[in-house]
Amino acid sequence: MEIQRGNVRLENDLIEQYIPFIRKTTAKVCKRYINTSEDDEYSIALIAFNEAIHQYSPDKGSSFLSFASLVIRRRVIDFIRQEQRRKIPLSIDYHDDDNENMENVAEIHASFHEYHEKQEREYRREEILHLNEQLKAFKISLSDVAKQCPKHQDARENMVKIAKTVVEMEGLRSTLMTKKRLPIKELTKHITMSRKTIERNRKYIIAVSLVLMEDYRYLKDYLKEWLG
To answer: Per-residue pLDDT tens for 79-126?
Structure first.
């Protein structure tokens, strides 16, 4: 919080202290040793760590290092993806009857598509692991959430609307994150859903609320059709 208020000296000290963490997190994404003086990925990770410092809020529920890890991995993956796109030739000297060149282009694009899908799976996995860590504070597991997920679309839409109410109302959101429980009694004053229905879907509502509060790109895509 001091750094967010403008303490530059403290900011530099914190970054210096966590260089091993930044390098280790970057190495996990790249799956190789990271040279801090040569690798562009490390520079991206440093910027991401600094971004995490200024964006972090305890209200989000996760620890700072967990949040920073998520931001670093996301930014590094984005950078790798952009570099892969840049390396694909934008134009190739090719004639209509040059099948070999066409096959090469197709192979390049197929290879990139496969890499892109692999990175997206890794991205999604990171978000799920991060969400799982947050849910532990509420004594909820991902399997609990899966079991409570409403089977009908209209029911899921209603639960997402309740979660949006929790996130958008400061008092409800504060109770959720500080006391690690869903403020059902207070919540019923703002929605028409019965207390019994809310209690039956409590774990699912909490999970959706956490997804809405965090920078979860892929998990939010999953909810997009119900977010309006």
So the answer is: 887 877 666 554 444 444 445 444 454 554 555 556 667 767 777 887
CA distance 134 to 210: 8
pTM of the model: 0.59
CA–CA distance, 15 with 21 (Å, rounded to integer): 10
CA–CA dist 40, 204 (Å, integer): 40
Question: CA-based Rg of the chain, rounded to a whole angstrom?
Answer: 22
By residue count, the chain amounts to 228
136's enclosing H/E stretch is: helix 99-136
Q: Residue 49: what are its φ and ψ, rounded to 5°?
A: -65, -45
- The first and second tokens of residue 138, run together, are 């509420």
What residues contact 110, with CB distance under 8 A and at least 6 apart? none
> Closest Cα to residue 191, out of 163, 211, 217?
163
Distance from C-alpha of 133 to C-alpha of 128, rounded to nearest angstrom: 9
Dump pLDDT digits (tens) for 119-175. Answer: 677 778 878 888 888 899 899 998 999 898 888 888 988 999 999 999 999 999 999
